[in-house]
Design brief:
With 496 residues, the chain is of the alpha/beta class. The protein folds into two domains: 265 residues, Aldehyde Dehydrogenase, Chain A, domain 1 (3-Layer(aba) Sandwich), CATH 3.40.605.10; 185 residues, 3-Layer(aba) Sandwich (Aldehyde Dehydrogenase, Chain A, domain 2). 38% of the residues lie in helices and 21% in strands. A seven-stranded mixed beta sheet has the order 14-15-16-13-12-18-19, with helices on both faces. The protein is globular, with a radius of gyration of 24 Å. The structure holds 2-aminohexanedioic acid (UN1). 2-aminohexanedioic acid binds next to loops.
């Protein structure tokens, strides 16, 4: 069994604690993927020290050269795409096709970062005084703490770490305890691509120990986190007190609206993919379906029929359509929400229980689950479940559908199916979310567009696109006075 180590200052080193834990396959918990360190604050201390030292050199490397290293990393990821995808499926359960997509999102992000190395644009603007120049440059911030979830174990670390590095920052990376092997592979690739020692440091362990140590470390100047709103609020609080830069990507309760004029076949494919893809474990997953009343009954009937046919199993098999949940505590959590849904009076019409056929007995499988006649005050309508549970609700008309969609404390992704261009445009204007899809499901964000949400989904940042470079850089305003005399802004005029 492979025993993994932390990666600090360019070397694989054991944790000072000597404590370890087993990383297991959620589709078959008899299968151990590897043994990983359970690090503590002392490991973080070493990692920060290395990152701080490396920062002095890395910040001076020209951005296009930093970009070339990331291009190399992207090429290595491309060469090892299949190997990475298989590891991901074994480690966290998503089906192979989706795991390949996850790796592809990392590759796209690497190549996008490579291109950005020759841009990193800022702006120039005229001065109010003659013979004086004014412009803005981007500078790195320092050492970043990167804390990532297990649901996109290559894509999410990539879309944080690559832009951080491109801007000249160094990082201490704490991946989710459920997906350490993918993180190790990613860091291995970065080192192989030529990222200098100390620029990327990887520390395995729990949020309560490693995460807290990163968060509270005075030398860590920024924290980027994707995960639950609960943890995000805690991170925001500490970063606020310590005046650290902080970018948070948190929960979602994404809805798909289907209007009566929509292409219903398309809308059906969309909701199945949005709700049950990645076993519902995406921040962008569709967890609410809002149907206009005229099509309510017929759409539900077709939805149930299709959802019952979804092939559940080990994601390594090419014909599997839905893998397991990430772990037993997550499965229990999903099941508790289902029980609450029943208790509060929603009608369970599909699934709602553990799936334990054949080999699946050994994994954390759960059936695709659908509730209908859901009401807006129900817990399953309001809270993020992070599993294959879809709540269906009836809307009186278009306006009512938008109102229902906006009745949420989250606002990440959203979708509307309609062929009425006026309604589509109005929906784009009125929906409170960071992302709106028209005639496409709530999932499927691309790396070169801003990604993030409103309300309790985040703190106003957008990862992806060039907006992520705003997160990982600081602006410096530069004035060059070549008049040879003392010129006073706001006081002198240009007239002689
Ligand atoms: C997430 O769920 O945390 O749009 C990220 C999507 C993916 C990214 C999801 N490209 O669903």
């Amino acid at each position: 069994m492979k025993e993994y180590k932390n990666f600090i200052d360019g070397k694989w080193v054991p944790s000072v604690t000597g404590k370890t834990y087993e990383d297991r396959n959620p589709a078959n918990y008899d299968e151990v993927i590897g043994i990983f360190p359970q690090s503590n604050y002392e490991d973080v201390e070493r990692a920060v020290k290395a990152a701080k030292k490396a920062y002095e050199y890395w910040r001076s490397v020209p951005a296009p050269k930093r970009g070339e290293i990331l291009r190399k990393a992207g090429e290595l990821m491309l060469q090892r795409k299949e190997e990475l995808a298989r590891l991901m499926t074994q480690e966290m359960g998503k089906i192979l096709k989706e795991a390949r997509g996850d790796v592809q999102e990392g590759i796209d992000t690497a190549f996008y970062a490579f291109g950005e190395g020759r841009r990193l644009f800022s702006y120039t603007t005229p001065s109010e005084l003659p013979n004086k120049m004014a412009f803005v440059i981007r500078q790195p911030i320092g050492v970043w703490g990167i804390i990532t979830p297990w649901n996109f174990p290559i894509a999410i670390p990539s879309w944080k770490i690559f832009p951080a590095l491109l801007c000249g920052n160094t990082v201490v990376f704490k991946p989710a305890t459920d997906t350490p092997a993918c993180a190790a592979k990613l860091v291995e690739i970065l080192a192989e691509a030529g990222v200098p020692d100390g620029v990327v440091n990887l520390v395995f362990g729990k949020g309560g120990e490693v995460g807290e140590a990163i968060l509270n470390h005075p030398e860590i100047r920024g924290v980027s986190f994707t995960g639950s709103s609960e943890v995000g609020k805690r991170i925001g609080e500490v970063c606020g007190k310590m005046l650290k830069k902080c970018s948070l990507e948190l929960g979602g309760k994404n809805a798909q609206i289907v209007l009566k004029d929509a292409n219903l076949d398309l809308a059906l494919e969309g909701v199945l993919w949005g709700a049950f893809g990645t076993t519902g474990q995406r921040c962008t997953a569709t967890s609410r379906l809002i149907l206009e009343e005229e099509i309510y009954e017929q759409f539900i009937e077709r939805l149930i029929e299709r959802a019952k046919k979804i092939k559940i199993g080990n994601g390594l098999k090419e014909d599997t359509e839905m893998g397991p949940l990430i772990n037993e505590s997550q499965r229990k959590r999903v099941d508790e929400y289902v029980k609450i849904g029943i208790k509060e009076g929603a009608k369970l019409v599909c699934g709602g229980k553990y799936y334990e056929e054949g080999e699946c007995k050994k994994g954390f499988f759960y059936e695709p689950t659908i509730f209908v006649d859901v009401k807006e005050d129900m817990t399953i309508f309001q809270e993020e479940i992070f599993g294959p549970v879809l709540s269906v609700i009836k809307a009186k008309n278009f306006e009512d559908a938008i109102r229902i969609l906006n009745n949420s404390r989250y606002g990440l992704s959203s979708s509307i199916y309609t062929n009425d261009i006026r309604k589509a445009a109005k929906a784009i204007e009125m929906i409170e979310a960071g992302i709106t899809y028209v005639n496409a499901p709530t999932i499927g964000a691309e790396c070169h567009l801003p990604f993030g949400g409103v309300k309790e989904t985040g703190n106003g940042h957008r990862e992806g696109g060039w907006t992520v470079y705003d997160i990982f850089s600081e602006l410096k305003t530069v004035y060059i006075d070549y008049s040879g005399i003392l010129q006073k802004a706001q006081i002198d005029t240009w007239e002689k």
